[in-house]
Design a protein that fits this description.
about 140 residues; single chain; mainly alpha; Ribonuclease iii, N-terminal Endonuclease Domain, Chain A; 6 helices
Length: about 140
């Protein structure tokens, strides 16, 4: 099992919103690392580009691409995340996108806490391809 902290943690016992809490940070770290590795640029530009990819609209687009590729176990986690009772939906977000983004983050949290970094990298790569395709047809922001 490979994780940053490495303490015992069974993701199967965690609520979908707790998984989404972790997954949000995991996905953001992936995005930030990818942006920084693409080249040095001003921090404001990095922040703007990361926000475009981490927002719920972008995550909903990525989730749509990932959904048919998920294992049965991953799909169950995704569905739990999508159906989780969130306290609020930001006013600039569509309800369906917010639920899809919560599910997406729950999935990332679950796979990360399961210690399957190869699978996590694969899911991230597919999500990036979905976002790049969305940028070509119509911007997310």
């Amino acid at each position: 099992m490979k994780r940053l902290f490495g303490a015992d943690c069974n993701p199967k016992q965690l609520s979908p919103l707790t998984l989404a809490f972790v997954g949000d940070g995991v996905f953001e770290l992936f995005v930030r690392e990818k942006l920084v590795c693409q080249g040095n640029c001003p921090v404001n530009a990095l922040h703007k580009r990361s926000v475009e990819q981490v927002c719920c609209g972008a995550q909903a687009v990525a989730a749509k691409k990932l959904l048919p590729l998920l294992t049965e176990e991953e799909a169950a986690v995704y569905n739990r995340g999508r159906n989780a009772h969130v306290g609020h939906v930001p006013k600039n977000a569509k309800v369906a996108d917010y639920h899809a983004a919560t599910a997406f983050e729950a999935l990332f949290g679950y796979v990360y806490l399961s210690g399957d970094l190869e699978r996590l990298r694969m899911l991230f790569q597919i999500a990036c391809e979905a976002l790049e395709g969305a940028d070509e047809t119509h911007p997310l922001v």
